[in-house]
Amino acid sequence: MTDLQITEAFLYMDYLVAEKYIQLKIINHLDYMLHLSCVSGCKSSMTTCFRALCCKGPPPARPEYDLVCIGLTGAGKTSLLSKLCSESPDNVVSTTGFSIKAVPFQNAILNVKELGGADNIRKYWSRYYQGSQGVIFVLDSASSEDDLETARNELHSALQHPQLCTLPFLILANHQDKPAARSVQEVKKYFELEPLARGKRWILQPCSLDDMDALKDSFSQLINLLEEKDHEAVRM
Ligand SMILES: Nc1nc2c(ncn2[C@@H]2O[C@H](COP(=O)(O)OP(=O)(O)OP(=O)(O)O)[C@@H](O)[C@H]2O)c(=O)[nH]1
Ligand SMILES: [Mg+2]
């Protein structure tokens, strides 16, 4: 095949793409042109190259998971989720009722239902648990002793709730940028996570609004747990 013919093939490919012909037609045409004038070794490698370039198609659909996100008011649920969605966390207001965000990751989309954490809303949380496949619990690591105790009670109730107790938990010890923040070890001990969550799948991640890498890493781990659960369901 001469240089001129190869150039012609490329030009014709450009033309077909511009005319929105389907990719298969491009390949068929190239196959035909190469068949006419190419030695067989050259033909197959060129075809492979064109196929790689043209036949990529849309990426496979990402699995979606429905999660519930809970935690006391001010823990930072909306702010963290907004940042994960590349939205500005400035001017975030307290969530009254609930709000839903589709949070995109490379290998999954998480449909996260955030439930407002104010005192008068928390008693309704359990009405919104149904259908959840995982739980995100956000706590303020720098909060007062009283609030930390309330957060611990809420987390324990969630870990033992019949609709949540078998689900993977991601526990975000947020506000780590503050000097008063408890370390991850302190949070683990104070929240009695090891005895209570024994045998469950959970991740405890220290984080803050400024540390998105740690946050994203913990979400990747959560997605792994969700996928494992999917595979188990298929095996059963
Ligand atoms: N310093 C610091 N401030 C944070 C952090 N995360 C959130 N905040 C601030 O905490 C305040 C409350 O954050 P929200 O995201 O509204 O908290 P929430 O958990 O959604 O609260 P509710 O919707 O009322 O349940 C906001 O002013 C945030 O900017 C953090 O990691 N560090
Ligand atoms: Mg909120």
UniProtKB/TrEMBL annotation:
Keywords linked to the UniProt accession: GTP-binding, Magnesium, Metal-binding, Nucleotide-binding
Domain of life: Eukaryota
Endpoints of the signal sequence: none
Binding residue positions for GTP: G71, L72, T73, G74, A75, G76, K77, T78, G117, N174, H175, Q176, D177
Name of a matching Pfam family: Arf
Binding site for Mg(2+): T78, T95
MF annotations from Gene Ontology: GTP binding; GTPase activity; metal ion binding
Annotated InterPro entries: ARL15 (IPR042292), P-loop_NTPase (IPR027417), Small_GTPase_ARF/SAR (IPR006689)
Similarity remark: Belongs to the small GTPase superfamily. Arf family.
Name the record gives this protein: ADP-ribosylation factor-like protein 15
Lineage: Eukaryota, Metazoa, Chordata, Craniata, Vertebrata
